């Protein structure tokens, strides 16, 4: 509970008794002058004395001096329901003497015409969020900033309302304290005449003041707890929003990484596919080149074979002609020898030669040159594993070969032409 600064000196200002002034910002200073009050006593069981009949706003006088008409001191309505009075009546009765002694110690600070200066306490700290906004706020961040702004405005309005309520309570307590002090002074003057009655009123005022103080403490404690609870709720809400943003960022990062991995996988597949196409194209080009070379080689071999066959035929024909000439020459020599040695006629010589030919045919078979048919060509494939024969070797010797499509690329196929 804030302290009150009491000034014992009497006011010598030229302002009238109802003048009031406020100084702002920061601290508000209120100067009040005493004025006459009704001495009518109110029943202790009633709290109607807390509700004034006339309510006036706080105004500053337009001028000073005796020309102003006196105006009543502005009052603040504080409707306090003493619902705990009956429950605490027995306990307060035991504490009256202690409270009476405490107020007696403060009597020296109170005068009949006093000037009270109330220093406004520092305002409570407002709830301010320390969350830094990103450069490019997301929809979640904008929603959170808007909710924080709304909460801050609500807290600011609640703080203003609490400050007004506390200020009203303090003004009422101040008024009651001043009334109590002035009542004590009047009671001391009239103590001999109405000691018992004044003592009863003093106790009533003390009880009311104690109730006011307790209620103010409970109110401040309640407001403080509410503010702490609001701040805790706001911090929890901010924490939940930050956690949601963190999870959203993690999910977004995971999606981005998954998308990048998917793109990399697609690029890898495309690269593998392109490499396979390139290899297939190279193989097709190589096969086409080999097929063309093989065709040219076959044509060359066929040409060479035709030339060889033609040469062989010519050689065989020349050989046959030489044999015929040799045989004719031998026959002529044999005829001449038979004529010279034996004196045989041509008919006898023909018979002998015919008999000789028959004997030779019986001995060697049919006489004459036999020309063999070169026949037709047959292609034979030989399957060889590549670890026993390298393709470079076949290329070096210009031998026809190809990969085995069934067991590619482990085996090679060799083409061999066989004449039948």
Automatic annotation (TrEMBL):
Residues covered by region (Disordered): 1-106, 177-197
Record's compositionally biased regions (Basic and acidic residues): 70-95, 177-193
Q: For bias kind Basic residues, which ranges apply?
A: 25-41
Query: Compositionally biased, Acidic residues: which spans?
Result: 7-19
Q: Where is the composition biased (Polar residues)?
A: 44-65
Stated name of the protein = Uncharacterized protein
């Amino acid at each position: 509970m804030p302290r009150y600064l009491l000034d014992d000196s009497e006011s010598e200002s030229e302002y009238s008794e109802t003048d009031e002034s406020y100084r702002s910002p920061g601290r508000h200073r209120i100067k009040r002058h005493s004025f006459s009050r009704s001495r009518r006593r109110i029943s202790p069981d009633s709290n109607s004395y807390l509700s004034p009949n006339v309510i006036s706003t706080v105004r500053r006088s337009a001028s000073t001096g005796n020309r102003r008409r006196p105006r009543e001191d502005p009052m603040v309505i504080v409707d306090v329901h003493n619902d705990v009075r009956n429950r605490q009546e027995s306990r307060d009765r035991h504490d009256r003497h202690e409270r009476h002694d405490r107020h007696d110690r403060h009597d020296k600070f109170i005068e009949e015409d006093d000037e009270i200066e109330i220093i406004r306490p520092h305002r409570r700290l407002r709830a301010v969020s320390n969350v830094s906004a990103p450069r490019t706020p997301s929809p979640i961040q904008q929603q959170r900033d808007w909710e924080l702004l709304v909460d801050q405005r609500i807290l600011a309005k609640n703080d203003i309302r609490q400050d007004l309520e506390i200020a009203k309570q303090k003004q009422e307590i101040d008024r009651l304290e001043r009334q109590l002090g002035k009542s004590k002074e009047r009671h001391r003057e009239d103590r001999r005449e109405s000691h018992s009655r004044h003592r009863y009123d003093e106790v009533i005022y003390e009880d009311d003041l104690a109730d006011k103080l307790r209620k103010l403490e409970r109110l401040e404690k309640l407001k403080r707890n509410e503010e702490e609870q609001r701040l805790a709720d706001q911090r929890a809400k901010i924490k939940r929003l930050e956690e949601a943003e963190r999870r959203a960022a993690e999910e977004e990062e995971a999606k981005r990484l998954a998308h990048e991995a998917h793109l990399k996988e697609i690029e890898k597949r495309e690269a593998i596919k392109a490499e396979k196409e390139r290899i297939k194209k190279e193989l097709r080009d190589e096969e086409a080149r080999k097929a063309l070379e093989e065709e040219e080689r076959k044509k060359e071999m066929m040409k060479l074979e035709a030339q060889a066959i033609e040469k062989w035929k010519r050689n065989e024909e020349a050989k046959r002609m030489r044999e015929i000439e040799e045989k004719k020459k031998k026959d002529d020599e044999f005829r001449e020898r038979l004529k010279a040695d034996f004196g045989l006629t041509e008919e006898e010589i023909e018979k002998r030669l015919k008999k000789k030919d028959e004997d030779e045919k019986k001995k060697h078979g049919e006489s004459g040159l036999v020309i063999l048919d070169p026949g037709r060509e047959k292609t034979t494939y030989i399957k060889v594993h590549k670890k026993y024969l390298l393709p470079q070797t076949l290329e070096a010797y210009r031998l026809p070969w190809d990969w085995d499509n069934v067991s590619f690329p482990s085996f090679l196929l060799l083409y061999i032409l066989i004449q039948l």
